[in-house]
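FIELD: query
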Amino acid sequence: MYNVLGTVVPVRAAFEIQFDRFEYFLGLMFCAEQQNRKPEDIIAPTGTFLWRRAREPDFGEKFIAQARERGDEWPPFQAGIFDKNLPAFEYVVGLFDEYVDRERARKGVRMPRR
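FIELD: result
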């Protein structure tokens, strides 16, 4: 993917961070659509951030911090996503993080020790 989009974000490390954020956000959107299901029945794409960000278990917290900081001005809230509701967004992040943890365990991705 970098070979195709590298001209948009020319530094590979910066590209990987933005692509991981995109993949994470896409997973959040899938979870938002399924939030009324039992957590074990949720299915969402995980992408490469599953293993690349294994050393950053608080990846979702960064999104929450952004939403808290920007409030109603946060672009996803302005677009009407997550019902413009921080607690609803935090709930979806929790659902997705649980799913990601299950997928990491299922695929044998090891988390670093703290």
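FIELD: remark
The chain has a mean pLDDT of 86.
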